[in-house]
Design a protein that fits this description.
2 copies of one chain form a homodimer. Chain A is built from 10 helices and 15 strands. By secondary structure, chain A is α+β, with helices and mostly antiparallel strands. The relative contact order of chain A is 0.14.
């Protein structure tokens, strides 16, 4: 159901010919209102793709009526021509839909440093507009895939409240915090203003997408949009709505990790006993980005020494001789030294759970990552992205 | 010639039985004086192995008569017993050599979190002492190898000055700045005090070992020692001596990169046009640590978009639309966008040269790294280190 689970939205996904292999590559999501409120968060990479620069401006203008998304090209590092192309994309969608161009957000994903084939993209917008449907969410989710092996959607509904939050995501490589590298469009039929959407979205991404770190690499195109149509007429309590947005983001984030390029393990790095949440996040990221540890996990080796050497690179509050580490429930490191027998650690399953206890306070945070595999190397040495 | 190229030093390398495969695993380097000045730099990892904690103390006491080095175990994260073992190692060497224990530095390398087999290590010190020789430098270099495929030595002599700087290094994985993960012992017969050695050593490591970043992982055991015997009687000019130390460190650093685990490419990341040297180093490290770029280089794909997306994660001064990137002499990115034809980039050879021009000033720095390969994954998922 994806982005059309909530009332007031239509979507489409088509093959416009941007991808040479003929796979779907263009999605359109339209908010039919009555409200057209929106919020967004974007990559913190200082090298931002043209569609990111455009969509940031569009959001400032206050309302988003439609989102055009393409795979097959990131339109990043493409200079003034790249920005003109994004602008032309928004103009075309606005014309077809009878709205203003500044109400159209644009998202692109694919190879950096290549101009988009506008002769295919612009006619594709007309084709997609003609296929817009209240059941088009799945097709839209399919059209934004790059190296994703599956499309990702999620829906949470409040039966008592009569409102829904749904969404779609793409992303398989270049997954790193602030944000995980991806495009995400969330929709709701709740009747909320942009400020409330912004508050709920930032609260959600901070503890979900921002804590997904597949390979430490941050993209130029990350975009997460939340659009509200108000079509349900329901005005939810903020806390309930924020929790629904968080749940959808969490589910989509887990789907991104579960489909990360070449990965054979999903690794949950849970940092506890930290002096502050910032410390916990810093330690979690350092552990999640340690290539040697990621290789060890791939080899089903509970190599806790690599966890400690990663923790040691951080500025977090801790004493080396008070650190504890558990892998899949076995405390293999106690007080910075040898703990329970590492032979007891069972690592046969896809999910691996590492707990790093800093013994310095009560704060905690969880970062999700993947193992490092020969398949990751193969996929990213053979594929330009 | 290694650590015995300079006069006043003897060394030995033996198989003490620490490694189960019977390979050499214990080295001894002795300074016969007349001077016993020394300087050292150690890992900036906050989780420090017992021998690092011990050797830092020994250096503070002012003179180093001998260094005991073992492979086959890092003696890191081994608690109070691990520190006692390092202490006992120094005591044993001091006893055999007729010196004080606080004059004995200790270096260990190998698996983290496992106690050393002291019943083999202590008798090994006696065996090694009996084999000390002015020609023992190569054997010592061989005995400190872990996953190194070759041993690493280097020598620079001043013919006019009549003095020499020589050294040995080990290190193949866990190579990252501050320092590259490794053990290095340098010796000189120049007649210099500890303060001068310290100044020259820090100046050298800052621009050599500190700028080697094979896999972004920082070890718990990094140690670089510089010992002076004064046996040549020569007192070199500081600048000439410092340059010799820098040259030996640079050579050994390049040998480390050339032998990095699983690597098929040595990548020189040269950052130019930076506002400050710190900016240049930060950008160089960000590029050198980007797994996606490292995979692309492995695939001989001049994927400059991944260079830009790495630069964008830094705090360095730059404007995205003024960035330029050359790969092997071809400016594939100009003004943040598409530059010369990427088809012109020839990447068939082991060395790859990336120039990132920030167009923001005159400062520059070079970081050396490797590509990311399936062999790296294999070696580090099958081997506990």
């Amino acid at each position: 159901m994806s982005v059309t689970a909530a009332k007031g939205f239509r979507a489409a996904g088509i093959a416009a010919g941007i991808k040479e292999n003929g796979n779907p590559d263009l999605a359109l999501v339209v908010n039919d209102g009555p409200r057209r409120a929106a919020a967004g968060v974007f990559t913190s990479n200082r090298v931002k793709a043209a569609p990111v620069l455009w969509s940031e401006q569009a959001l400032k203008a206050g309302q988003i009526s439609a989102v055009v998304l393409n795979s097959g090209g990131a339109n990043a590092c493409t200079g003034p021509k790249g920005f003109q192309d994004t602008h032309a994309t928004a103009e075309k969608a606005a014309e077809v839909l009878g709205r203003g161009p500044i109400e159209v957000a644009v998202c692109s994903t694919g190879l950096i440093g290549v101009l988009l084939p506008m002769d295919k993209l612009l006619p594709g917008i007309e084709t997609a507009a003609a296929q817009l449907s209240e059941h088009g969410g799945e097709k839209a989710a399919l059209a934004i895939k790059t190296t994703d092996t599956v499309h990702k959607t999620s829906v949470v509904s409040s039966e008592s409240g009569g409102w829904t939050v749904g969404g779609m995501a793409k992303g398989a490589g270049m997954l790193a915090p602030g944000l995980a590298t991806m495009l995400v469009v969330l929709t709701t039929d709740a009747d909320l203003d942009g400020e409330t959407l912004d508050r709920a979205l930032r609260a959600a991404t901070r503890v979900t997408f921002d804590r997904v770190d597949s390979d430490g690499c941050m993209s130029t195109n990350d975009t997460v949009l939340l659009l509200a149509s108000g079509a349900s007429g329901a005005v939810p309590e903020y806390e309930e709505f924020a929790e629904a947005v968080r749940a959808v983001c969490d589910d989509l984030g887990r789907q991104l990790i579960g489909d990360a390029e070449g990965a054979s393990k999903d690794i949950k790095v849970e940092v506890v006993g930290a002096a502050t949440e910032d410390d916990a996040v810093e330690v979690g990221r350092a552990v999640a980005r340690n290539n040697l540890l990621k290789c060890a996990i791939h080899g089903e080796d509970p190599n806790w020494g690599r966890v400690l050497s990663a923790i040691g690179t951080t500025r977090a509050v801790f004493e080396p001789d008070r650190l504890n580490v558990a892998i899949n429930g076995v405390w293999v490191c106690k007080n910075g030294s040898v703990g329970e027998d590492r032979e007891r650690v069972d690592m046969r399953y896809r999910e691996v759970h590492i707990v790093a206890d800093l013994a310095a306070g009560d704060a905690e945070a969880t970062i999700w990552t993947n193992d490092l595999t020969a398949d990751y190397v193969h996929e990213n040495s053979a594929y330009s992205s």
